[in-house]
Write a structure and sequence with these properties.
The chain is an alpha+beta fold. Helices cover 29% and strands 26% of the residues. It has 4 domains: 35 residues; 129 residues, Glutaredoxin; 111 residues, no CATH class; 100 residues, no CATH class. The strands form 5 sheets. The protein has a 6-stranded mixed sheet with strand order 2-6-5-4-7-8. Strands 9-13-11-10 form a 4-stranded antiparallel sheet. It has a 4-stranded mixed sheet with strand order 12-19-14-17. This is Thioredoxin domain-containing protein.
Length: 440
């Protein structure tokens, strides 16, 4: 809180407290002059403040007209900078993404295909706020695996603030007149929607920051609800730090299979692995989102929201409570069992790339990774993010390694070729392990 300061107290030292009448008159003169000086200073400050400054633009929502925007830095484009008006008359789709965002990276090939397919009828623009050097390195890795025709705006967070970007992936659809027609996630990026957009059909779902259920006023609550429009699929497990704080689980627009995987997670950071989850049910609980049509037909009936608020609860208590809730609501049984599963094993096949030391580093995205002075587990963890099949460690390597892969990490054969250069390999094995079984 700002303190109110008495100017006289600041201007008059303590030695002025006990003075004669003449001294007092002198003090008044000094005081008056000091006040005049202060007023002049204040006027100068006001005058300076009133000079034209670059105002921070208000956040743009669906239906708003986008002001003229100057893109200071562009890469993968003939020009190093450009303005929004340079694309005047052409529909624009802004793709806010980052090198660490797996869904963003996996959507790039589809976007590039759409850009090539629709040509000059639409313009995709990627927006990255990680700096020019990192963004350029990210694009270079993409180009090592496939051509890329989409320009990249290297942003200093101006656009991210302007469009209130809080979740990734995040797409902003701007028509030829500069009006925002939709804000969506990657699920709406498909041929049918882009074609409709070009032709003036703007039937998209906009993004939203709201959570699944609002229960901030409750001390304890547990609820399951249906699909929530305008929200991405997401999950948060937030253990309480003390007895007075609320432990929370918030799962938004998740399949039944995903909800059980959250409930059987062994930490607040990770859900139970998908590749270790076995479904023995009549329905397909972990439906495919390969096409927008499949998603649109399933999201209303096959996705749910769950929220739990429990005072003083740690991660284990939260997930155990969630299991009980799911068992009461869904006619399914879920349990941990020992089963034999086929998976991939990382093995040493030749001269192992032991680390030469130095700073521990890990950079990765869908199109490659660079690992320095890190354990093999770091390599496996990254590869697992892009592969539905399980990957386990059978390399026997107990010391840090240096590994750089320049390939699409979602393609096993391409990864095998890169690993072979480093004396490593991926072999198919079958082993008994603990799995999550969901059954009728």
């Amino acid at each position: 809180m700002n303190e109110k300061v008495d100017l006289r107290g600041e201007l008059l030292p303590k030695s002025f407290v006990k003075k004669t009448t003449s001294d007092i008159l002198l003090i008044r003169e000094v005081h008056s002059k000091s006040l005049i000086i202060c007023l002049i200073c204040c006027c100068l400050v006001v005058s300076v403040s009133s000079q034209p400054l670059e105002a921070k633009p208000a956040q743009i929502k669906v239906g708003s007209k986008v002001p003229e925007i100057f893109f200071k830095t562009l890469i993968n484009f003939p020009l190093s900078s450009a303005k929004l008006s340079d694309f005047k008359g052409k529909p624009i789709i802004l793709d806010f993404s980052a090198s660490w965002c797996a869904p963003c990276a996996m959507a790039i090939p589809k976007m590039d295909s759409l850009q090539r397919g629709f040509g000059s009828k639409v313009q995709f623009l990627m927006v990255n706020n990680e700096g020019k050097e990192k963004a350029a390195k990210f694009i270079e890795r993409i180009k090592q695996t496939r051509p890329l025709s989409i320009p990249v705006i290297v942003d200093d967070n101006t656009l991210w603030e302007l469009f209130n970007v809080r979740f990734l992936p995040h797409y902003v659809w701007i028509d030829g007149k500069g009006i925002v027609r939709a804000i969506t996630n990657q699920e709406q990026i498909n041929t049918a929607n882009v074609h409709a957009f070009i032709n003036g059909n703007y039937q998209f779902s906009s993004s939203s920051k709201s959570v699944a259920i609002s229960a901030t006023a409750l001390f304890y609550s547990s609820a399951i609800s249906g699909y929530k429009d305008e929200q991405p699929s997401s999950c948060l497990i937030q253990p309480a730090k003390n007895d007075q704080q609320q432990g929370k689980i918030i799962a938004t627009n998740c399949s039944v299979e995903m909800l059980f995987r959250i409930a059987f997670s062994d930490s607040a950071a990770k859900t139970f692995p998908l590749w270790k989850t076995i479904l023995e049910t009549k329905g397909n609980l972990h439906y495919s989102l390969a096409t927008a049509t499949a998603w649109d037909s399933l999201k209303q009936s096959a996705t749910f929201c769950y929220e739990l608020q429990l005072p003083g609860a740690d991660a284990k208590t939260l997930t155990q409570t969630m299991r009980q809730d799911l068992s009461r609501f869904f006619p399914l049984r879920a349990s941990l069992q020992q089963r034999r599963l086929s998976c991939l094993a990382l093995v040493a096949t030749g001269r192992v790339p032991f680390s030469v030391g130095g700073k521990s580093e890990l950079e990765s995205n869908y199109f490659g990774l660079k690992l320095r002075n890190r354990p093999v587990s770091g390599l496996i963890e990254v590869l697992q993010q892009y592969n539905r099949r399980g990957i386990i460690d059978r390399s026997g390597i107990l010391v840090p390694v240096d590994v750089e892969l320049k390939c699409a990490l979602g393609y096993v054969e391409a990864v095998r070729v890169e690993l072979a250069r480093l004396g490593l390999g991926l072999e198919v094995v079958e082993e008994e392990m603990e799995v999550l079984v969901i059954e009728d």
